[in-house]
Amino acid sequence: MLEPQQIENWIAAGLSCAHLVVEGDGHHFQALIVSTEFAGLSRVKRQQRVMQTVRDHLDSGALHALSLQTLTPEEWEAARG
Amino acid sequence: MDVQQQIHQTVTQSPVVLFMKGTPQFPQCGFSSRVVQILKACGVNEFASVNVLADEGIRQGIKDYANWPTIPQLYINGEFIGGADIAAEMYASGELQQLLEPIVKSV
To answer: Is the CB of A62 inside 8 Å of chain B's CB atoms?
Structure first.
């Protein structure tokens, strides 16, 4: 079964993250990703950037569902209050 | 007509188009179901939907069309909006309602 840690490794290998947490039950996963790379990018472009890092695993069927929350460090600070 | 042209025609023919697993009545994936619920909550009861499970060519082709590897995919006025996460975020912020308001009114 796919572990959240494995997905974190895939994402971290392809994107510099200030903060990265992946949770999931082995089938459906949720990721919170904080990266300076998201600054100035639309929601779609941010997700495309992240999905690029796991594309091979989505195509192979190893990874089925990954829900993403993509924030810049500033947005994350604001969201945490 | 190849698959990409077919998809382009589909997304530009109707104001709201959802590529999903299953149908609005019987969604076969939780994420697809969520977007259907969000559209309904925005007052959109009629929209074009494409069941990707019924057509393997479309299922693969739509991923390339938007450079987006997952289903569902929501299109409004021919533009790719996003998947379930983005639809939910835009609904929570009110942006989606704003975008859909002129379409809901014109029906």
So the answer is: no
Q: Specify the DSSP element, H or E, that contains A17.
A: none
Domains and CATH numbers, chain B: 3-106 (3.40.30.10)
Q: Is A51 on the interface with B (CB under 8 A)?
A: yes
Give the number of domains in chain A. 1
Q: Do B70 and A58 touch (CB under 8 A)?
A: yes
Domain that residue A23 falls in: 4-80
Q: Which residue has the tokens 């974190």?
A: A8
A45-48 contacts, C-beta under 8 A, 24 or more apart? A46/A70, A47/B68, A47/B82, A47/B83, A47/B85, A47/B86, A48/B67, A48/B68
Comparing alpha-carbon positions, the chain B residue that sits nearest to A43 is B86
| Contact: A44, B86; criterion CB under 8 Å | yes
pLDDT in tens, A23-81: 999 889 999 999 999 999 999 999 999 999 999 999 898 998 899 999 999 999 998 87
> A34: domain CATH number?
3.30.300.90
Residue pLDDT, tens place only, B35-89? 999 999 999 989 999 999 999 999 999 999 999 999 999 999 999 999 999 999 9
- With contacts defined as CB-CB under 8 Å, which chain B residues touch A48? 67-68
- Chain B residues with CB under 8 Å of A28 CB are 30
Nearest-Cα residue of chain A relative to residue B60: A59
